[in-house]
Amino acid sequence: MNNKLNNIKFLVTILSSSDHKLLKLSYNSVINQLNHYLNYTIVIVINTLNKTYFNDVKNEFDSINVEIIQTTSNGKPGMGHNSLFTIFKNKPQFDYLIPIDGDD
C-alpha cells in the first residue's frame, strides 16, 4: 500500500443531465474499481433543464449515502463542466478533482 497516496484526497464528480440508470452504472463503475488505495469521495452533480431529473436521481440513489448537488444549467455542457470547478474550489479538503461524465 502506498502511504503517500493515502494522504491525498480526491474529489470524484459525476456530472449528469439525463438518464439516471446510466448514471447509476457510472457510479457503480467508480466504486467497484479494484486494486487501488485512493482516498476519494464521490459527488453527483446534476446539471439539466429537466425539472424532474434531480428528483429522479435522488430516488435512484435513495439508499446510497452520496452527496447530490444540482447546479444551474443553460442547456449546454460547458456550464455543467465549469460548475465542477466551483464545487471543487468550495471543498478545500480535497487535493485533486477527477471529473467524470455520467455516461462514461
Report the order of strands and helices.
Answer: HEHEHEHE
Arithmetic mean of pLDDT: 91
Oligomer: single chain
The fraction of residues in strands falls at 25-35%
Strand order, largest beta sheet: 3-2-1-4
Largest sheet data: 4 strands, parallel
Helical content (DSSP H or I, runs of 4+):
25-40%
Question: What coarse outline follows from CA principal-axis ratios?
Answer: globular
Number of separate strands: 4
Secondary structure category:
alpha/beta
How many helices? The count is 4
- Uncertain spans: none
Q: State the end-to-end CA separation.
A: 28 Å
Rg over alpha carbons? 14 Å
Short description:
With 104 residues, the protein is an alpha/beta fold.
Please describe what this structure looks like.
This protein is an alpha/beta fold and 104 residues long. 36% of the residues lie in helices and 25% in strands. It contains 4 helices and 4 strands. The chain has helices spanning 3-6, 20-31, 53-60, 77-89; strands at 9-16, 39-46, 67-70, 96-101. A 4-stranded parallel β-sheet has the order 3-2-1-4, with helices on both faces. α3 (53-60) links the parallel β2 (39-46) and β3. The longest helix is centred in the last third of the chain and has 13 residues, at 77-89.
